[in-house]
Amino acid sequence: MKRILRKYNSVIYGNYKKKSLGYGLALGVALCLFALLKYLLNYLPSSPVTMSDNIALLLFTVVIVYLYRAGLPQGKMTLKEGFLIGFYSAVIGAVIYGMFMYLYSAAIDTQMPLRCGQTLQKIPEYAEYTPQQFAAMTKPSAIALQSIIYNVIMAVLWSLLVAVFLRTEKAETVNKNNKLK
Q: Which of 104, 99, 117 is nearest to 39 (CA)?
């Protein structure tokens, strides 16, 4: 009987766990600075995560995986290693960004929850909601949680996409006798 899934033996060439912490902190700070720049340019968001935030996360993920690969011996990196460095870094960055979004929506741009509520009111599925329900859905803690969750979901997609394009090694397939091909 033929197997549907193959076993792979992938080699990890660097210490991605240690590097992802540093890259994640830098990513979180970069996303926060990007949000502040948008505020200073009067580009005020009406949702916890905007399209420009997604593009910024993608670009920063490309930079992180590229820098990580450049620091590896002989520049060798598998899909798995590229995905893990990008994903772990983006998760750490998303948590930092989420904490910042709480401060941002509570103290810097206090009208953001109102704009988010107005955006939700335009969606037909929310037509029956009361103002109290909109207020609960758009309070700073809800905005922070939504930005963390959405950025983590996007981190999975962006990390996989970036790893596919920046990998330099393919993992070896293990055959039926547990021997590498």
A: 104
